[in-house]
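FAQ: What does a ligand-bound record look like?

Like this one, built around pyridoxal-5'-phosphate:
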Amino acid sequence: PFSQVAYFSMEFGLSESLPIYSGGLGILAGDCLKTASDLGIPLLGIGLLWQQGYFRQSLDDCGRQIELYPYNDPTQMPVTPVRDAEGEWLRLELPFPGRTVILRAWQAQVGRVTLYLLDSNDPLNAPADRGITAELYGGGPENRLQQEICLGIGGWMLLRRLGIQPDICHLNEGHAALAILARAYSHMQDHGTSFPCALTATRAGNIFTTHTPVSAGFDRFPPELLTRYIAGAPGAFGVDVETILALGRENPEDTHEPFNMAWLAIHGSLIVNGVSRLHGAVSRHLFQSLFPRWPEDEVPVIHVTNGVHMPSWDSAEADALWTNHCGKARWLGDLKDIEADFRQTSDGDLWQLRSTARQQVILFARRRLQKQLAAAHAPDQDCENAKTALDPNTLTIGFARRFTAYKRPNMLLNDPDRLYRLLNNPHYPVQLLIAGKAHPKDDVGKVMIQQWTQFLQQHPDLAGRMVFIADYDMLVAEHLVQGVDLWINTPRRPWEASGTSGMKVLVNGGLNLSELDGWWAEAYEPETGWALGDRQEHDADLKWDQQEAQQLYRLLEEEVVPLFYQQRDANGCPCGWVAKIRESMSRLTPRFSSNRMLQEYVSTLYEPAARLLSARSERAIVEGICQWQHDIRQHWQSLHFGELDVQSDTDTHHFQVHVYLDDLDADAVAVQLFANGDGKQNPEIYEMTRGDALTGAINSYNYTCTVPAHSTVESFTPRIIPHREGCMVPMESNEILWYR
Ligand SMILES: *Cc1c(COP(=O)(O)O)cnc(C)c1O
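The answer part, i.e. the structure of the complex:
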């Protein structure tokens, strides 16, 4: 039912040979394209070709992060110029204040899926404009706005130039939300309608995926800045400043309120989702203020939990084992037999897989360590020792992530002596592989990187037990997730919206020990891994951090290490550990694959959105919706309830209430009976039936409803909400009137 999805994203992580990503958001976008290709889903990507991408990291001999910005030469990357019908290089002319910025267009082929990339590094542009697409997450607010104009508006213009008419625009994070305006503007031009009607017609095809669990994570721009760009480039935006600014505000009347890209994304789409079950709930809380007086549960944000593209993250050996049990086409179908089929694997095969994988990641870590030491002019002896660092039979723990406060990448360093004892246990040793970058402006993150080097320098005897691998990227990630026995993740709940790195170890038989946050909060079961935290939020409470660190040490000392080394069978295979691997692999791998994720996007977002969109293809219908929205706003203040009457017998309550609708068409609203399930059970909602008009009153009716009596009469209250077939409430009309 949908014909083409245009997937807009600021970053795409497809391979280290196309370094136009920074982290999880980009990898998700990349995995999404690969999966669309696998499954034959009509999807294309729209992004920017960053001249420098994200920085590359090296470490000096004190462990300080050094940031390098190599130039991404398009001729050296797997991209080709997009050509127009005449075979000429396609160039877009994007109106900017006082000038035109030229955007070059490139394409990369991801199997059957095309990724279009724009950049401003054209010699015809002024030098400053050539730098607009230089650095991912690099510049200040103005540069960021320029980049987002290129992505959202430039991206939409490119599709128009190519004659591509996507029915679905999927906005991966708010960065791309300006595409909403460009799409509506095109509709205005094509159909000669007003902007509100154009937005109403097109927003049905827009989907917004939000990724941040904190309001500070939303892009916000000062209104003056945005005004300068909108007023200065009417050819790009098409509508007046006030109309646009209002879409990015919670309170359109407040002229000081910054322009919030997430608000724009909500006001310009019909379906919004978070990226894990917990993040869905967190997002409903964050977006609550846009739906005043609505219960938080009914804030219209659903969730699709992220997944990863298993064929990209599995090792050759893991692939072979999976193929033996589940066939070559296992990630291409409905996934339903995978769990049962994979469970047939023998202990021996699983343990063999792990042993080979561990060996390989150790070889990789040694190579990288030798290079790093040589580059840092380390003593010859250290370089020599690096060749034999790490041990192939030792429990190998990995953790790699962005070094930033909320991820708590130094939790293991909370008690350095205890960590030392853990690593250096003479019978049951542990080794650590660590990687991660800190954002160039995140000084706290940089200090945390340095602390690892300092710990190592204080304990030179750990040189063979611990390696910090510099320049965490997809290649490093691939080696780590394939090789480590245990993946640790320690974010502060609920700040990890989903997290995907831990999903990448599943297919390879690595186990997870993670905070009950993001995906792990819904994935964890005692049979499949270990959980940190208590399912509560504790904010940035240092005392609590400390307590969790103790919990982490205790889990490692008392559960993880013994399970790995003890209960070995005659062949040296740790049966308890392998049993956990089998459960983790068979239960969780299909569930957290991007195949499951994308199929969920198709059935719960793309298909419904396409249906909503096609139901709005007629102008009269769209105008009807706009009129309805207008009428609701106009009359809402005058609606009111009259008398409420309840009669109960043993099984049922019979409710009857008088409703005065001012001049509003009675079909424009629904009257419901609502019972808040005292926090625990889900709220109950019943539609009330409109009965006779009240005699002696204008446009007022008797509404009735009979409900089962398992809740008390007092727990029910009637309410009026906007209603119209084919419209989303409260997304498109957020009024609500409660009886009490
Ligand atoms: C998977 C991946 C991420 C995302 O991982 P998180 O779980 O969000 O930490 C970041 N960077 C790279 C290089 C990755 O491969």
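Follow-up question: can I read anything off the structure? Yes, for example: Residues 631-738 form a domain with the Immunoglobulin-like fold (CATH 2.60.40.10).
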